[in-house]
C-alpha cells in the first residue's frame, strides 16, 4: 500500500531529480517563465516557493542557503536583486502554472510555469479592471435622454413611399 506517499519521483533517481529541479529553479529565476510538463511544474513549485521566501531577507546566511539549492551565482544575484524586490509584499504564491495542452510526441500534458509578478499581459488586465470605477445611472438622466430623443425624431415617411413605388412598379409590369 502507498499510504501517505505523496512525493512524485518523476521517474528519476534522487540525485538526478534534485539536479533537474535545481536547474529548473535557476532557469525560472533567469527567464521568468519556462515551458515544461505539468508534473515537473508541480514538483518545481514545491522547491521554488521556499527559495523565493528565503530571498526576501537579504543576508549572507539566506544567500548561502539559496545558493545550496540553486548552485548558480547569476541566478542567486538575479533573485536577490530583482525578483525579491518585486515580490516583497506578496505573502506567498509566487508562481503560476498555465496549462497549454498535450505534447505531440507522447501526449504529455504541457504547461508554462512563470513568476506571477512578471507576466505583463495579466498585470495590464488587472490594472484596467481596477482603474475603471463602476457608476450607477440615475433615472433622471435616463428620462431626460428619452425626452430629447422624442423631440429630435424625424418622420420616416420617405422610406415607405419608395418601397411602395417599387411594389407598384412591379405590379404594373406584371399587368402588362
From TrEMBL:
GO terms for cellular component: cytosolic large ribosomal subunit. Gene3D superfamilies: Ribosomal protein L17. Pfam families: Ribosomal_L17. Signal peptide: none annotated. Keywords: Ribonucleoprotein, Ribosomal protein. One of its GO terms (biological process) is translation. InterPro entries: Ribosomal_bL17, Ribosomal_bL17_CS, Ribosomal_bL17_sf. Residues 127-176 are annotated as: Disordered. Residues 165-176 have a biased composition (Basic and acidic residues). The keyword Ribosomal protein applies. GO terms for molecular function: structural constituent of ribosome. Residues 131-140 have a biased composition (Basic residues). Transmembrane segments: none annotated. Belongs to the bacterial ribosomal protein bL17 family. HAMAP family: Ribosomal_bL17. Part of the 50S ribosomal subunit. Contacts protein L32. This is Large ribosomal subunit protein bL17. It comes from Dysgonomonas alginatilytica.
Amino acid at each position: 500500500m502507498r499510504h501517505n506517499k505523496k512525493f512524485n519521483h518523476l521517474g528519476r533517481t534522487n540525485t538526478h531529480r534534485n539536479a533537474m529541479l535545481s536547474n529548473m529553479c535557476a532557469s525560472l529565476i533567469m527567464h521568468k517563465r519556462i515551458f515544461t510538463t505539468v508534473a515537473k511544474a508541480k514538483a518545481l513549485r514545491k522547491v521554488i516557493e521556499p527559495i523565493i521566501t528565503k530571498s526576501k531577507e537579504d543576508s549572507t546566511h539566506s544567500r548561502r542557503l539559496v545558493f545550496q539549492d540553486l548552485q548558480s551565482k547569476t541566478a542567486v544575484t538575479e533573485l536577490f536583486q530583482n525578483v525579491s524586490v518585486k515580490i516583497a509584499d506578496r505573502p506567498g504564491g509566487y508562481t503560476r502554472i498555465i496549462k497549454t495542452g498535450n505534447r505531440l510526441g507522447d501526449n504529455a500534458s504541457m504547461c508554462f510555469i512563470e513568476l506571477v509578478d512578471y507576466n505583463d499581459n495579466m498585470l495590464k488586465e488587472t490594472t484596467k479592471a481596477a482603474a475603471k470605477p463602476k457608476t450607477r445611472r440615475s433615472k433622471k438622466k435616463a428620462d431626460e435622454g428619452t425626452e430629447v430623443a422624442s423631440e429630435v425624431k424625424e418622420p420616416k415617411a420617405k422610406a415607405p413611399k419608395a418601397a411602395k413605388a417599387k411594389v407598384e412598379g412591379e405590379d404594373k409590369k406584371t399587368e402588362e
